[in-house]
Amino acid sequence: MLRCLFFHGPTWDGDIPSKAGRGELCELGLAHHEFGWAWLTRDGIDFSLTVMLLGEEKEKWQRQRRNTANG
User: Fold this and answer.
1) Which of 20, 26, 61, 67 is the one with CA 20 to 30 A from 35?
2) What φ, ψ does residue 7 adopt, rounded to 5°?
């Protein structure tokens, strides 16, 4: 769930992999949920970058998406 919100940004409830996981992130203060949308808080972003080390992984994922879109 953390990876989903970090990679995709604000995400509609119908598109998230786990509502329970979203709830846990919210309880920990790592995400916020309102009006059917969930997104990471600043603490969630910091955790994603410093503990989970997702920054480079996201950059690689974005490069692959750009290269695929550009054919």
Assistant:
1) 61
2) -75, -35
Task: Show the domain range for 45.
Answer: 2-69
What is the Cα Rg of the chain in Å?
Answer: 13
Predicted TM-score (pTM) of the model is: 0.83
**Contacts made by residues 54-57, CB under 8 angstroms, sequence distance 24+:** 54/3, 54/6, 54/7
At 2-26, the pLDDT tens digits run 999 999 999 999 999 999 999 999 9
